[in-house]
Specification:
By secondary structure, the protein is mainly beta. It has one helix and twelve strands.
C-alpha cells in the first residue's frame, strides 16, 4: 500500500479497489470543540467535499479555523483556512471542496474554502477543523453540526 498522501491515480488503482462514491456523516462534536474524522482501517478515501455548519454564540469575538489533514500520527500535510472570520451570533455553513474557488456568498451564510483534488487519505489518516488560540478560537457556546464528507471510497488491497 502507498504511504504518501498525494498519489497519481495509477498508484491508487494498484493499491485499492474502487467501491464508489458515498457520503459519510460524522458525529456532532461537543460544544466549543473541533470536529474530526478518521479514515477507517481497510479503506482509502479521496475526499471531494466537506460540509458543516458552525453556529457561533453571542460571546464577542471572531472565529476562524483551518481545515487540516494529517497522517494520524500528527504529521500534517495540508492546512487551509477560510479567508474571512465568522462573527459572533451567526450561523455559517463551511464548505471545503476541490472546485478551485474561494468565495463568501451574499450575507456571509456560506464560506467556501478550496482543497486539493488529488489527496488520498489512507487508513488512519485524519481530517479536521482546528480552531486554536484565544483570539480566533472557539467561544463558549459555539457549536458545529455533524460534518458531511462526500468521498470516493476504495477498499485497500493489503
Amino acid at each position: 500500500m502507498p504511504t504518501q498522501a498525494v498519489l497519481p491515480p495509477s498508484q491508487v488503482s494498484a493499491a485499492a479497489t474502487i467501491i464508489g462514491p458515498r457520503v459519510v456523516v460524522g458525529t456532532v462534536p461537543p460544544v466549543a470543540t473541533d470536529w474530526i474524522q478518521t479514515v477507517p482501517p481497510g479503506f482509502i478515501w479521496n475526499v471531494k467535499s466537506i460540509y458543516a455548519t458552525l453556529e457561533t454564540s453571542a460571546v464577542a469575538g471572531a472565529r476562524i479555523g483551518p481545515f487540516e489533514m494529517s497522517d494520524g500520527a500528527g504529521a500534517g500535510f495540508y492546512s487551509r483556512a477560510p479567508t474571512q472570520v465568522q462573527p459572533a451570533s451567526t450561523v455559517q455553513t463551511h464548505n471545503f471542496s476541490n472546485t478551485g474557488r474561494e468565495a463568501i456568498a451574499g450575507n456571509f451564510i456560506v464560506a467556501h474554502t478550496p482543497m486539493p483534488d488529488d489527496i488520498w487519505l489512507l487508513p488512519g489518516y485524519v481530517f479536521r477543523v482546528r480552531y486554536v488560540g484565544a483570539t480566533l478560537g472557539y467561544k463558549a457556546g459555539d457549536q458545529w453540526t455533524a460534518p458531511q464528507f462526500w468521498i470516493m471510497e476504495y477498499a485497500a488491497n493489503d
